[in-house]
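Ticket reopened. Same input as before:
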Amino acid sequence: MATTSTAPAPLLHSTVLDWYEAHARDLPWRTPDASPWAVMVSEFMLQQTPVKRVLPVYEAWLERWPTPADLAADAPGEAVRMWGRLGYPRRALRLHGAATAITATHGGEVPDDHAALLALPGVGEYTAAAVASFAFRQRHVVLDTNVRRVFARAVTGVEYPAQATTAAERRTATTLLPETAETAATWAVGVMELGALVCTARSPECGACPLKRHCAWQLAGRPPYEGPARRGQTYEGTDRQVRGKLLAVLREAHGEVPQARLDEVWPEPVQRARALDGLVADGLVEPVAQGVYRLPR
DNA sequence: AAGACGTGGAA
DNA sequence: TTTCCAAGTCT
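Engineering reply: fixed in the latest deploy. New output:
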């Protein structure tokens, strides 16, 4: 089953590559001196988190832990504390776990092999491909939310991609991937950047898009999204909110925290206890003694 | 395979 | 004010 036909791949390639060269943001993890570790740190932090909020934490993180071994030598709780308010603090724990694994089994060097990357905690399909592509200039399909949206529009002609990645999307991305590794790597980050800056979720700037004459969605008159409602998760009153409040107390208090301090953040005792138990189960919080907690050592 | 998992800024 | 969304991963 063919999708809407598009311009020949080489034309799309040069169109995106030229646009990227002219419009790419200067981000620290894209500079030539950014190490594979720096790229990996940025990828962990950028999971579900905007660039602007990542930047200051990224800088502080790499200054403190310039190599995986530096991080591995420190307590996981320090990683959680340094993570600050980036959100999804399990990522900090997993990044510490990845650093530990890299130090223990890869000689302290971030592996350049996709499978080895995928085996690290916190590294899924996207992050493995991103690190292999961006840090090691390999040829991989890099499918993140930006790329999926650009392809949904430009190739398939719909405003938004499906909720979960489909085989058809992988096929499209594979077909469009340039043959040469170096070109493929720049293409990957270029399509991502296009999705981040122009082909955005809310209000795309189609007038400024280099693909406007090729884009199936544009050519179809930008029909509105028709699929099932994309559920927005409520946050107020959830365990996630309580976990966030509890962990904020632990982060800001250097050292041990008595139960009473934690009890102040949420009035409902059952949910509060459940949230704290969850944090302990996740390894984000460590019970020291009866009614005393701290970040993990 | 649907749901859990933080946080804050923009519309 | 409410809703949506931001370079996902794990179970």
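Residues 42-54, 87-88, 90-91, 94, 121-127, 130, 142, 144-147, 189, 192, 195-196, 200-202, 230, 232 of chain A lie near DNA strand C (CB under 10 Å from a C1'). Residues 106 and 116 of chain A are 9 Å apart (CA to CA). Please confirm and we'll close it.
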